Please model this.
Amino acid sequence: MLRISSKGRYGTRLMLQLALRYGDGPVLLRKIGTIEDLSVRYLEQIVPALKKAQLVNSTRGAHGGYRLARKPDEITLGEIIEALEGPVVPANCINILEICERSAHCVTRQIWKELGEKMSQTLNSYTLQDIVDMHRNNHQNPLSEG
Model:
């Protein structure tokens, strides 16, 4: 089954919290952990990948914490997921032909490749700002959940 791991899901929630506070200065992981009911230790394991992908910046010191490296409308969900999960591919043979001796003539490989492309297109069609807007809309209309 294709799944986004807790790393991808929790990392997206971390990024949402940073986006909700964009422009307000650095945010402590402890605050995000409390709001999202997530382990600070787990968030500490997620942040390095987001920093490496240049999605977040950190500030040390008494007024330190984390903030988005770019505006929320300039960061896509696809970038977040790829930073945390790696390339979005439903089968390893899409990027590494040598993994399977059948890759060169496999009929289903093209289907898996198209599926991966569509998944990436969908993830990249959402920005953090879109997710912020959805979050705010859901919190204004709590009974509108299906």
